[in-house]
Protein 1
Amino acid sequence: MSAAPASTRPVVEVQRRTLRVLVLAQVLSGAGLAAGITVGALLVTDLLGSARFAGLPAALFTGGSALAALAVGRLSQRHGRRAGLAAGYVAGAVGAFVVVAAAAAQNVWVLLGAFALYGAGTATNLQARYAGADLAAPHRRARALSTVLVATTLGAVAGPNLVGVMGDVATGWGLPALTGPFILGGAAYAAAGIVLGVALRPDPLLLARRLDEEAVENATVPAAVEVPETDDAVPGPTAEDAPAETAAEDPGAVRRAVLVAGTVMVLTQAVMVAIMTMTPVHMADHGHAVSTAGFVIAVHVGMMYLPSPLSGWLTDRFGPLRVAVAAAMTLLASGLVAGLVPSSSVVGLAVGLGLLGLGWSLGLVSGTAMLTSSLPLATRARTQGAVDLSLALAGAAGGLGSGFVVASSSFAVLSLGGGLLALAVLPVVALTARSRTGPDRAAAADRPV
């Protein structure tokens, strides 16, 4: 039996409230996302006494985020975005605090397992972008999801720059200095989970499904709908709940769109994680302080998220395939700069890592817009989780392989190779555009004339 609705509000008002809640949670979680990235490789190098395994933390972060992406997607599919995202952030917070305890006890095996659990926060931070698009109009979908991404900037930039401060806090508590950022990360993830668990009502995915069903029944989308203050009136999705329009979808076209979107995001993620992971180690090996490496990573993370509104506008305006090409070219430029500048040049490395972040933003936003526009609501969250699983596995491979590449050759080889790998996006885009059934055509149909 459904609860009586508490109020009647236009969908646009609910979407604005949803974005406000997501923005607050992303600001908080951004600190957790970036703080551990800065010192994870350094912590393992310190404990193991070798940089050969410095890529392990990033590999475990992203490997853990792969499993978490699948779990969060399935939980969101069944119970809504609020349940999935809140649970993911809580898991990330637990992982961060276990990292602190394991490092204090110098237990490497527990530490490595905790890195994987900490990755749940990374997966959840990325999955939140989908929640921003659930209720968005098709021609504003990329801008809506980019609003959620850009909100991460404040915490993500602040986190690496608090490495020194949090190191002093940890030392004052009798803990290793490098555990300080993980203390910050655990608190940030926990706060984000609480915000979403309390305030993300009504649930955007469950409400979007309900509206879709009503639109099918009434042959029109209502201008104002009854929106309950709780999710009790919005049942969880089942296979039988699939809207009628799903039956009209071309399964082959959907599969092609998912493949193209996934390829763009997977390549973008692998290149970004590989170069980013080894930058602090490369800088430490050439005499730079941890705080200086933190500054470079802060520039990188800022450029991952700060240009998101631009990435969203470009995607809505010109289509995701063109923006995917721009992402590949930007990543190539990043690899050239990071690989060729002198190791002593902090400015040069910051520019290279900034371009790396921008290329990632363009690739993620364009790929996400392709993916979301192609999927029916009945299976959207589950498929998004599966794609993010591939995304995280690609990042894990990039993070793990980066340490071995640098140990056997150099950081320059890693950077240049990553830039060239990004160009693999181009033939995929070319084949899709030639087929005349690609996502850009569907996206263009969504955009108003």
Protein 2
Amino acid sequence: MSPPVPPSPTPLPLPALHASHGGNWLRPPNGDTGAVSKGDAIMAASDTPVLLLNAPLVASRLGYPDLSGLDLLELFAFVHPARFCVPTPRGLAQALEIEEPDGDENVPAFLQRAAGALVAACEDPEWFERQGAWSALQSLERLRWPWAQVLRPHITRPEKAEKWLFATLPEWEEQGERGPPRQVELPPEDVLAQLDHLTGEGSEKREGQRAYATHAARIFAPRDKRELPHIALAQAGTGIGKTLGYLAPASLWANASGGTVWVSTFTKNLQRQLRSESRRAWPPRRPDNTPPVVVRKGRENYLCLLNLEDALQGGFAGRPAILAQLVARWAAFTRDGDMIGGDLPGWLGTLFRKRGIAALTDQRGECIYAGCPHYRKCFIERAGRDSAQADLVIANHALVMVNAARGRDHAQRPTRLIFDEGHHVFEAADSTFAATLSGQEAIELRRWIMGPERKNRGRRRGLSARLADVASYDDEGGEAIEDACEAGQALPGEGWLQRLVENEPSGPVERLLATVRSATYARDESGGQEAGYGIETEASGLPGDVIEAAGAAAEALAAIRTPLIKLGSRLEAIMADPPDWLDGQGRNRIEGARHSLQWRVDLIAAWESLLARLGGPADPEFVDWLAVDRSDAREFDVAIHRRWLDPMKPFAKVVLEPAHGVMLTSATLTDRIGAQPGDPWESAIARSGAAHIESQPLLTAAESPFDYASRAEVLIVTDVKKGDLPGLAGAYARLIEASQGGVLGLFTAIRRLRAVHGRIADRLARSGLPLYAQHVDPIDTGTLVDIFRDDPHASLLGTDALRDGVDVPGRSLRCVVLEAVPWPRPDILHKARRAASQSGSQYDDRIIRARLAQAFGRLIRNKDDHGHFVVLSAAFPSRLLSAFPEGIAVQRLTLDEALERVKNGLIGEAPSEPAEPAGNVGNHSPDYPA
């Protein structure tokens, strides 16, 4: 029996326009849809407001950036804030539960029906999101929001005046400190019983998962010695069920000990998955209404209520002001205020050109804590307090490391840690423990110290404004603030980069950056100048003017750091002997200011240390270099960088040693060395930090239960020449056509991605095969993946961000195509670590095998998946083939032969691996990503 056809809503009588790579279609308010040229489509949109779906994307397809209209996504965000919707005709139809259009030519009529459904929802007595809608509409009408006139007759004025958003948000409450966890043992039989409970009655008992769970339980045992945590490195192949495998002992331990387990991920996608899976072990709320599971992210991910209030009261103008009103609608219904990867639609910010979403978060660490009038309702503070009482905290690698390095509350630092996506811990540590003195970083420090200069808009506040009461009460504190503000003028100001280009730097730090820029251009031999890429040079043998400028800049930085240290000590003194006017909120604000001060003091000290090394002997622990950051030949920053040669040293000291139990887990933790000599665990141990503490890690591996040999095969295409862009584009188009969509195309260079997309998108669209691409479509990456997952005929092109962490099971992803072998870029940092490894090309091979394994992991996500993994490069050394699962067929063949196998779904045993073609090994020039 076929499912019932959803009722068709009354269409909204307005013109509707749809533009795709396959053509453009326009439908009048009452008439038939017709195909139109790009020019006619632009003229129609200019004459009268037309219904559109994703106006920036339509504008991109028409090549007319100033296009505007009645965007249904904006209407959806108003009518249904905090509700998920894939921003395509199909996705909107599913969200509204109406019939989806069949073909591009039917989309305009669908847009009219969808608009009618959304408008009708506003008249429904059961409209869940009615609260605040009328007031928001009045504000949006004053801002000339195009939808306001359409909605006005359909939203009735409430009988009672609606409360302002900030009066409706609930306040968090202070909780007593949670005591230290009890020391408990987890018997294996209890762990397995909990696993059976989580997987559900009657579910298949997977031996790999059961062994994995009992091994994971080992990190929860009481610690034997101080600074010697239990460490486990656990590889779990796709399909093992590692999430429930470690949640079983984690939930058991949290319940028995009264402690908190932190699970850290690298991608937001896994955080969403973890939140969903955790519902098997914990209820949404405890009897006291506190959440047992909390998602924590960095401050820059959450809505800042003070920034929102400023935006609503005139801080934003034009289109950004409309965005602020839509975000305010969302804020009234959001689960936790998470704007990046939470329940705010990822596409909402991309509908507005300026970085409006970022401006509504605390990007610059300017929080005034208890000095904020919305402090008691702050989403960030609520998440922090909830996590202190939680059984499970779901965080990300960067937050865990930053919290360990400079957390405000030592008692809240995690002691039982599980790093999922553990193969990314090394790069997260590499970024966290780095030091970078750049123009962008320095100007942010100036803004934090001095606040707004000239006539800049916004609520930015300097030290004087944030600590005015302290300055008036404590003379020494006031002098320290004045001294810091005066010294802060030595930092780069507005227009610093243009002054560098014109060779007219202002102040000691700008003069340093000018010499760094000049030296980098003079010494660059990469060819990046002509290609438009960023350039860099080693920080050794530097010209005298760089060394001289570094000394002057270091003195200027010391002059800033000294009064900041003095101010910190004065704040401590006030806390120790508080005046009568200092209430609880004031104490919290000063405590927050002390934390913020210490962060900047440490930052400046790291910069001074970095400058002190310039001109001196190299420090074997670090790699230093100069860089000019560019994109498409346009400069956007100048910097001096310092990285740990081995960032796992500070990671071991800061994160591992204070912990009691730590596990790193991933499907690609070990190196798949194949028949080559070596220990597959060697790199995993080195990149976990375990080598820097005296504790021996527990090593365990659970192989995937999937039958890869019968479900997938690897095809290495030998007749697509390197550098042949038309040939590469043709190969992608033909593979997508053979597979009828469902292709994930991975590129090592953005420029080639754009070139291929530009050549083939129209051709594919005319065959009903939509093609989307990172760095081309004005859509965020998470939404692109949502669109790809939702449409089995769609294909998606992308770079590194799509190689790992993308979970698209089923027919929506049935072919992965690599444009080239993902060779590591031989930059200064990579070459230094390669030399330190003393393994030469084996170091590169390990990186490549890991990337290949991660890319292949996108293909088979469940036991029913099947498909092809295609590499469009004959220069694929046989020694790298061990990156793929054991037993999988690998064939070197022509493009025509590959197309035949993809088109007919042929998967089977391949002929024995042919001899490596002469010249294919060791003669590869890596690609430089744009």
